[in-house]
Amino acid sequence: MAYYYFDFGDADKRTLDSFIRSLIVQLTTNLPKIPQDLSNLHARSQEKNQEPSTESLKGALRAILVNSSKATVVVDALDECSNPEELVQFIGEMRSWNTGHLLLLIVSRQHFEGADELQEFRPIHVSIQDEVANNDIFKFVKETLDKDPKLKYWPPKVKNEIESALISKASGM
Questions:
Q1: What is the chain's alpha carbon radius of gyration, rounded to the nearest angstrom?
Q2: Burial track 119-131 (b if 16+ CB lie within 10 A, e otherwise)
Q3: Which residues contact 85 (CB under 8 A, 6 or more apart)?
């Protein structure tokens, strides 16, 4: 199993290459030996003293997935990727590989660049933008404002304004 979070706050973690590299590391960590394709890629990179290309990384990941009996990949915050359309295209490429058993769970906001292309995968949509999520968010915000050493002494009026502003724009996120 591999999990990747496209972190809006970290530009280095919003690229296709960082996604592929992370999957390679996670999917090979517990293998008894390093796959030959990955060893070859590492050796070529060392010889040339340069990072492997995106295509080389894709090839290494493909070899790992094709040779695994089962793989689950969780993609969180796909919409925060620096190029979501490129990522959606790559996910389609991954699905076309003859991988045996590849399970994908993709989490994203509903509307983003590339969302239309995801529809061809016939996704199952589960919305978390509902009242239950908003209640959890409200509880978290309230508890933070009440217990945080820097915020707990703020005037109640200011805390109420913060709560209102955050909750009104949360939309389950």
A1: 21
A2: eeeeeeeeeeeee
A3: 113, 114, 117
What are the two backbone dihedrals, phi and then psi, of residue 26, each rounded to the nearest 5 degrees? -65, -40
30 neighbors 2 (Cβ within 8 angstroms): no
Could you say which DSSP state residue 100 is in? S
Q: Distance (Å, rounded) from C-alpha 158 to C-alpha 90?
A: 46
How crowded is residue 136: how many other Cβ atoms within 10 Å of its Cβ?
Answer: 13
Give the Cα separation of 84 and 88 in Å (integer). Answer: 6
**With 80 as the cut, is the pLDDT of residue 131 above it?**
no
- CA-wise closest residue to 70 among 93, 44, 104, 45: 104
Q: What is the mean pLDDT of residues 68-88?
A: 87
Residues 76, 6 contacting (CB under 8 angstroms): yes
Mean pLDDT of 32-36: 86
The SS3 call for residue 105 is strand
- Residue 108, pLDDT score: 77
d(CA 27, CA 118): 24
Distance CA 97, CA 81 (A): 22
> Domain spans of the chain?
2-121, 131-170
